[in-house]
């Protein structure tokens, strides 16, 4: 009987610890310091994102879900861009630059598109391997939400509106 209680206690403690991890894992953490080289040859940094709510999307032209969600990413950008919102699409290291340029031009992407030629940006942002992976960064430069796979855009819009309303 004592062993059952011990096992139950250990299981409960482990579950509580995991619950705490999940809860703490959703708290804001500073976005990694990164320099992004954009398709036009210019660059931007994580520090330059401050002051705006920013969606940072790791994607690839070969990713079916990435391609499928792009119209919603564009619509979200267009809906909030005049309210202090920005989008930065980061193409994965394995994505040929010519494919990224062609995609950005043919789809008329209205936001910044960066190439991660070395894979260092994806590594710095949590060793991103799965696409799409999307981060929502608040005005202070903290990551407040991470989506792996296509976000629920209704939920995403509510979060963006909440973050835009913050001082």
Automatic annotation (TrEMBL):
Top-level taxon: Bacteria
InterPro entries per the UniProt record, alphabetical: Redoxin, Thioredoxin-like_sf, Thioredoxin_domain, Thioredoxin_ResA/DsbE_sf
Gene3D superfamilies: Glutaredoxin (3.40.30.10)
Residue span, Thioredoxin domain: 25-165
Pfam families: Redoxin (PF08534)
GO MF terms, alphabetically ordered: oxidoreductase activity
Signal peptide feature range: none
Protein's name in the database: Redoxin
Origin species: Comamonas aquatica DA1877
């Amino acid at each position: 009987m004592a062993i059952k209680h011990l096992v139950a206690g250990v299981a409960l403690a482990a579950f509580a610890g995991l619950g705490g991890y999940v809860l703490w894992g959703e708290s804001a953490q500073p976005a990694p310091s990164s320099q992004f080289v954009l398709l036009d040859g210019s660059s931007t940094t994580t520090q330059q994102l401050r002051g705006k709510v920013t969606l940072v999307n790791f994607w690839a032209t070969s990713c079916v879900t990435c391609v499928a969600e792009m119209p919603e990413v564009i619509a979200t950008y267009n809906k909030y861009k005049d309210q202090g919102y920005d989008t930065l699409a980061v193409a994965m290291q394995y994505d040929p630059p010519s494919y990224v340029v062609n995609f950005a031009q043919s789809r008329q992407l209205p936001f910044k598109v960066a190439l991660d030629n070395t894979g260092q940006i994806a590594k710095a942002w949590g060793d991103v391997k799965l696409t799409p992976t999307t981060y929502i960064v608040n005005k202070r430069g903290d990551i407040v939400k991470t989506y792996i796979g296509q976000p629920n855009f209704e939920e995403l819009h509510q979060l963006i509106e909440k973050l835009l309303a913050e001082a």
